[in-house]
Amino acid sequence: DIQMTQSPSSLSASIGDRVTITCRASQSINNYLNWYQQKPGKAPKLLIYGVSSLQSGVPSRFSGSGSGTDFTLTISSLQPEDFATYHCQQSYSSPTTFGQGTKLQIK
Amino acid sequence: EVQVVESGGGLVQPGGSLRLSCAASGFSFSGFEMNWVRQAPGKGLEWVSCISGSGTTIYYADSVKGRFTISRDNAKNSLYLQMNSLRAEDTAVYFCARRTTWNFQPSFDYWGQGTLVTVSS
Question: A63: Cβ–Cβ under 8 A, 6 or more apart, which residues?
Fold first, then answer.
């Protein structure tokens, strides 16, 4: 199975900050990388698919980049509603696997 | 509006069984692969099983193979997960998720709110 490793595991930031979360795959996954946002007690929400394509309705302050094994999720200017846990997922090979999550907290 | 709603979770003893259900609405259910994904308390997401739209193709994670059975009833727009021989490590919130493909990129675009399964004596 492909292992997905996110860093950092947790992150404290302030409103208006620019934040970057990294996801590394244990082998090349081409562009089959998705990002999800999850708030406590809620279902994950698809933010970005295929590395950099924004899901409908997702604010443009979210962006994704990367290739091969290394990928990033960037939030350009943190808003109060962005404090949540973020998960990356590879959909390149079966079984699909997720990173361990990055918890974004208010500083 | 697309909706998926899980039910059937609860407290069960080790070795016991439980059947989860997922009711879907707002889309052509038979046209989509459906998945179960779980999340143990304080942990990340773990894919459990998937079933094709027709129900003919099924896959399981190694951790549940031989113990869990996924099925669907397209006439009822429903997805199921029969869980047998439950273990403490199966304790988790179980999510039902729809798989979609945009520009050849698969992802899970709609998720239910989850149902909690607790395996404990």
Answer: A48, A52, A54, A73, A74, A76
**Cα radius of gyration (chain A):** 13
Cβ within 8 Å, pair A50-B105? yes
- B103 to chain A: which residues are within 8 Å by CB? 50, 53
B45/A contact by beta carbon, under 8 A: yes
Tokens matching residue A106: 């208010």
Residue B75 CB coordination number (10 Å) = 8
**B27 part of contact set with chain A, CB < 8 Å:** no
Residue type, B28: S
pLDDT per position as a tens digit, A34-91:
999 999 999 999 999 999 999 999 999 999 999 999 999 999 999 999 999 999 999 9
DSSP state of A27: S
